[in-house]
Amino acid sequence: MRRDPPSVDGAPDLRHRHALSAAGVFAALAGVVAAQSLVRLPDGWISASFALLAIVLAWRVPRARWIALFVLGVGWACLRGSHALDQRLPAALEGRDVDLVGQIIDLPDAREESVRADLRIESATLDGASLPLSGIVRLSWYGKDHELASCSQWKLRVRLKRPRGLVNPGGFDFERHALQQGITATGYVRDDGDNRQLVAAPFCVDGLRARISAGIKASLHDQSQVPLLQALAVGDQRGLDEHDWQVLRATGVGHLIAISGMHIGMLAGLGVLLVRLLWKRFPQINLWRPGRLIEAPFGLLCAGAYSALAGFGLPTTRTLLMIAIVVIARMWRRNLPTAQTLALAMAAMLLIDPLAVLSAGFWLSFVGVAWLVFCMGIGQRRWWQELLLAQGIMTLALLPLSVWFFGQSSVVGPLANLIAVPWISFVVVPFTLAGSLLLLPLPSIGVPLLDFAAWCMHGQWWLLQEMAAWPGSQWYFPEPSLIGLALASVGVFWLLLPRGVPVRWIGVFLLLPLLCPARSVPVEPAFEATLIDVGQGLSVFVRTATHALVFDAGARFPSGFDLGEAVVVPAVHALGVERIDRLIVSHGDNDHAGGAASISTVLAPALIESGEPQRVGLDSVPCIQGEEWHWDGVRFRILSPAPMDSTTRDNDRSCVLLIESGQGRLLLTGDVSAAVEPAIAAAVGTAPLVLVVAHHGSKTSTSEEFLQRVSVRYALISAGYRSRFGHPHPDVVRRLVDHGASVLNTADSGCIRLNFAADSAPALTERCRLARRRYWSE
After folding, report:
1. Left, alpha or beta for 611 (phi > 0: left; psi -120 to 50: alpha)?
2. Is pLDDT above 70 for 141?
3. 342 to 24, 44, 320, 322: CA distances (angstroms)
4. What gap in Å lies between CA 436 and CA 454, rounded to an integer?
């Protein structure tokens, strides 16, 4: 019979047992992660069989326990993923009007032109027939007169589609996010239905969060600090704009604003302290129950209440699970080491929701705490040394994950956190929380407390803004590889080993494949082009050996969402370019020019050109027919518009750019119509080319006469999924195919990348949606 090895005094070595249990959790975690690399999931019964087999194997064959736990992780993750995919809207219902009854959850986001909210489905019907729909749908209701309150129940007629995101290098994977969050469809409310609120909003935590958030906004005198205090009090981040997030990313303190695990632990400690003071003041309480056993559950209750107000984000849930495990151990009179507590919290998280590993918060939370546990217990230090060491450890330990998930890292992060962590955690948060809790029952006390918290936060935020503006406050990195991440993780582990381990500095070299990966740069006179997936819009990135250009910038919506900032800039950075030489905005329409300001700010082009500079704004000059320049042996020519041509307006004022290198030719046409195509065809000639189809494939462009005069090898279309404009038009696609062109659409392909060599035909190098496909991808 297997026994634990004895310790010096003959008792079982608990540390050995703890190490074995932690290793088992890591084995299960490895299985869950391995399942996320699958392109397709096995059938549910196969996944369930694997999980059941793993349980039997672990029970009957102890020597194979780690393998069994790995298999269990794979099976459980596949089973959970299959269930989540089965809940998605059936493809046959896309674009159909469906009547839903459900409850508004979380906090609706009201904007100028619409309100966006998540609805948990209770029932669904189509033409009176019941539908088996469930899960959460993310809805937009356009118009200024609609109000969707948290917790309220509604009957709404909606038009839905399956979760669908943009796919680009360095881009946010919305389809993965939707799977992890349980979002089964997205859509908008139709105004032709019997839309009405069914019952008054019942009490629920989200409703309380909304009331506190609204109270903070209504009562705070310093309105500039309202979004920050709303985020700290109830996890309401709706008021934070892109500038705020840029400051938080540049300084690396976003974890504080998102209600970190430290805040949850602090509140649990406050609950314990209050009960301790109570039972010491009234010792007779110990006759009923030992005071120290009362402390722990009350601390857990306080932590749970704050976690509920925070919306149960991953960092808060992780901390809450750790506190719950400590409480259970205390009630059982067991003393668990911190590492064991962390491992059990991870096991609980994987058991509750294995899809949590798809979130960056899961990894940043657990890995950060694990490194602190590993490093902070080594040696004796003073408090200020511990504080400095903690910041250094977190910066280095989370560097690989920051680059992997976000493609960037904050240089000023350690200094910013050194100042912000104690000030926000021990000054701003306590007054914010106290003021928020007293705001509704005792506003005469709650409002002054909130005003004081805002005053404290005002100075801190000013300092963070100044630090974010320092030169080089952020570093951007090319898109990393999995091998680079693995090597960097080993390098961090080696660097953080205890003092005395030989040649620790070698770990620095293991970071290089992640931070300085080998870049695929075109060799003169070749060039590369990437048609970025911006939905219903256009943006093209072109790079030669030493220069870079962006043609068009995607849209910017009234809500403030900016595709230039959110999609184009991260894609350019992920492809290894930090600055561009030229930005060409074909014309002034929003779907081409909306993101230009953001691109200009971040990528700092030396020159900005446009066919309609007066509409684009910025410091732009007109692009004029006949303009020509050369980069690294590649020829660039502006073919349209003609100078001082007053007969052309709007779309026909689009800059048309032809890029040539040997057999490689790329024609960018903006939104020109058939009226100007004859002049373009005459300038292009009959040599084969790659065409970015004008106006997203609209029937007003790409005429039969134009295609008869040019030779199109690839026809690239930038259009939105299920475009409401009907782009691309079927007639245009048919004409292109009839003329021998291979037609590719970003709606189906994601970003489209091509290599234009001087001595060979253009080569398609990547269709992002296909190359980056996972089981959750549409």
Report:
1. alpha
2. yes
3. 13, 30, 11, 6
4. 12
Instruction: Mark out the alpha helices in 561-699 (DSSP H runs).
Output: 563, 569-574, 590-593, 596-603, 613-616, 677-684
Decide: 566 and 544 in contact? Cβ < 8 Å: no
What pLDDT score was predicted for residue 4? 44
Which residues are CB-neighbours of 728 under 8 A, at least 6 positions away? 693, 696, 697, 698, 717, 719, 743, 745
How sure is the predictor about 126, in pLDDT bands with cuts at 50, 70 and 90? Answer: very high
Q: What are phi and psi of 543, to 5 degrees?
A: -135, 135
- Tell me if the bond preceding 728 is cis, omega within 30° of 0: yes
**362 vs 180, 345, 356, 405, CA distance in Å?**
11, 11, 6, 12
Concatenated DSSP letters of 665-721: EEEE-TT--TTTHHHHHHHH-SSEEEEE-GGGG-TTSS-HHHHHHSEEEEEEE---T
**Cα–Cα–Cα angle for 638, 643, 648, nearest 5°?**
95
Question: Which of these, 11, 23, 15, 6, lies nearest to 335 by C-alpha position?
Answer: 15
Which percentage of the chain shows pLDDT scores above 90? 57
pLDDT of amino acid 31: 95
For 648, residues 6+ apart whose C-beta sits below 8 A from its C-beta are: 641, 642, 675, 676
Let me know: does 547 contact 631? Beta carbons within 8 Å: yes
Q: Which DSSP category does 62 fall into? A: G
Bond preceding residue 525 cis, omega within 30 of 0? yes
**Which backbone phi and psi does 576 adopt, to 5 degrees?**
95, 20
| Tokens at 642, concatenated | 């003609």
pLDDT digits (tens, 9 = 90+) for 504-556: 888 899 999 988 887 788 998 999 999 999 999 999 999 999 999 999 999 99
Ramachandran angles phi, psi of 508, nearest 5°? -60, -40
pLDDT digits (tens, 9 = 90+) for 403-426: 999 888 888 888 898 899 889 988
| Cα separation, 564 vs 369, whole angstroms | 35
| pLDDT digit string, tens, across residues 448-501 | 999 999 999 999 999 999 999 888 788 889 999 899 999 999 999 999 888 778
Q: What are phi and psi of 101, to 5 degrees?
A: -120, 130
Please, what is the end-to-end C-alpha distance for the chain in angstroms? 51
SS3 472: coil
Rounded CA separation 72/79 (Å): 10
- Could you tell me which residues come within 8 angstroms of residue 442 by beta carbon, excluding any fewer than 6 positions away? none
Q: For 671-719, how does the pLDDT look when each residue is reduced to its tens digit (9 = 90+)?
A: 999 999 999 999 999 999 999 999 999 999 999 999 999 999 999 999 9
- At 357, the amino acid letter reads V
Rounded CA separation 355/701 (Å): 45
Helical H segments across 129-260, by residue range: 174-181, 205-219, 226-234, 242-251, 254-257
CB-count burial class (<10 Å; 0-12, 13-18, 19+) for 59: exposed
Beta-sheet strands, E only, within 415-499: 474-476
Instruction: Check if the beta carbon of residue 367 is closer than 8 Å to that of residue 398.
Output: yes
Produce one character per residue of 301-338: b if its CB has 16 or more CB atoms within 10 Å, e if not.
Answer: ebbbebbbbbbebbbbbbbbbbbbbbbebbeeeeebeb
- Beta strands at 634-640 and 656-661: parallel, antiparallel or unpaired: antiparallel
pTM, two decimals, is 0.89
